[in-house]
Amino acid sequence: MGVSFKGEEQNLQDILASRDQRVQIQQYFLERYKSSLISYKLNIPGPIKYSSLIKHIFDDGLLTAKNKLTEASVEIIDEKVLYKNSGPEYFAAFKGTTSLIKEITTVIEETHPLGRLFDFDILDLEGNQLSRQQIGREPRKCLMCEKNAFECGRSRNHSVDELIDYIEKIALTYFNGKSI
């Protein structure tokens, strides 16, 4: 593992506290704006969830999503970005159909060079998460081997170190020549 993944290690309590905070923010947005919600974070394995490289990956995904939403004339009502040791997160209440937003973010996840690291959850007015299957898409694929990501992760086909090395390699290749 290279220097790109140096940061404060997160333990299970940190991850669970972050998840609880994410749910609270999601509930706040849903209740306040009575609209659907984008909740975006990254899929980063291991105990390091925030570093300079991770921030650049996150920011690139966020910029891509905001550009695509603008192109589709989706109006963002309010948004919040958090940069924290448990991983960066973004929340946005928006005007638009939930399935359209899910389609846009799924295309980003499937086509962007770093897209498999992006995790865009789209919640409807009741807080239910829209799945890929609900818009006619296949489940997420593993970052490294193209198998079903959930099944691959559950069976631990790849070590955390292998995954981190792979992420670092693809991210540094992607950002080559760009200031990070």
From TrEMBL:
Gene name linked to the record: citX
Keywords, sorted A to Z: Lyase, Nucleotidyltransferase, Transferase
One of the GO biological process terms: prosthetic group biosynthetic process
Annotated InterPro entries: CitX
Annotated organism of origin: Clostridium magnum DSM 2767
Single GO MF annotation: lyase activity
Catalytic reaction annotation: apo-[citrate lyase ACP] + 2'-(5''-triphospho-alpha-D-ribosyl)-3'-dephospho-CoA = holo-[citrate lyase ACP] + diphosphate
Domain of life: Bacteria
EC number(s) from the headed UniProt entry: 2.7.7.61
Name under which the protein is recorded: citrate lyase holo-[acyl-carrier protein] synthase
The keyword Lyase is assigned to this record: yes
